[in-house]
Amino acid sequence: MSKNLLLIFTRNPELGKVKTRLAKTIGAEKALAIYKFLLAHTKKVTEKIACDKAVYYSVKVREDDLWNGEIYQKKQQLGEDLGIRMQNAFQDAFANGYEKVLIVGSDLIDLSEEIIEKGFLQLASNDVVIGPAEDGGYYLLGMKSVHPNVFKNKNWGTSSVREETLNDLKDKKVHLLNELNDADVLDDIKEHPAFQHFLN
Length: 200
Hints:
Blueprint lengths: L3 E7 L9 H7 L1 H19 L5 E6 L14 E5 L5 H14 L4 E5 L8 H10 L5 E5 L5 E6 L17 H8 L5 E3 L9 H4 L6 H4 L1
Parallel strand pairs: 1-2, 1-4, 2-3, 5-7
Antiparallel strand pairs: 4-6, 5-6
Helix pairs in contact: 1-2
């Protein structure tokens, strides 16, 4: 067992249930195809990193899917909102003996092995690592212990999340990684080469 754990939060890829903001402009079927593409990208980026890994499913744990059960622990997200679900996952990780824990989502085409490895590295000399997203949220959060206030009183999915999170961590040493762009709305992806075959 590694002392480092990577948590990957995913949504079960079901028509009409994923990338709903994107679906408003390109339709639910294309939005689902893009989300499946992003899931596969996240798997490719994460599967060879030298750490333990856990995939957290939004609705139901799937055994026969793209996440290999020999590489990824499979768990269910628990809690009434995203903050509580993330807090529960972090608490579970530390309770199981992990010392450095990172969480990422599964909708970031620019996510790379280097970014995740840098996140773990920066936790050696920082309390918290944040990967800021262009929309005002974050695509990565890393901790060595749970900071519960980070997960409370947030309007998840809005542009205020990162600023409020940094306010919660004023007395902690925080490292910010490179800013990247989530794929939430058409403007996020329409210029990106990786998505052109979905949009044409």
